[in-house]
Amino acid sequence: MREQQPPPPGTDFTPYYEHLHEIYAQLDQPDGMEGISTLILSPSLEHQICQHESTGCWTAAQSCWEVRLQQQPDKLDFHLGLLQCLRNLGHYGTVLLAFWP
């Protein structure tokens, strides 16, 4: 068996952690996501949204979607993400008003 060498100092594992985070999200494993999230030092907004949605923190996810919409208001996926949060929070009236202004 070959002895493994430690990674060189200063190696950035963030892309690997992000990929593991996506895998845990697809597997619906919130505990795994929590563990990997502790290793990511500066999570992206997408990472935070995924984290909040997978753990059921819909109010926090809603806040992140609102920030995303401020950055790119014409992006349909961001509107759909916000609507999903509102639906999961039980804000059905707000969801309906989004379609009938």
Quick take:
The chain is built from six helices and no strands.
Largest sheet: none
Shape: elongated
Q: What is the typical, i.e. mean, pLDDT?
A: 85
What is the number of domains?
Answer: 2
What does this structure look like?
The chain has two domains: 11-42; 56-101, no CATH class. It is built from six helices and no strands. The protein is 67% helix and 0% strand. The chain has helices spanning 14-26, 30-37, 45-55, 58-71, 76-89, 92-99. Helix 1 (14-26) runs parallel beside helix 3, helix 3 (45-55) runs antiparallel to helix 4 and helix 5 packs antiparallel against helix 6.
Secondary structure blueprint with pairings:
Blueprint (H helix, E strand, L loop, with lengths): L13 H13 L3 H8 L7 H11 L2 H14 L4 H14 L2 H8 L2
Helix pairs in contact: 1-2, 1-3, 3-4, 4-5, 5-6
Core attributes:
101 residues; mainly alpha; 2 domains; 6 helices; 67% helix; 0% strand
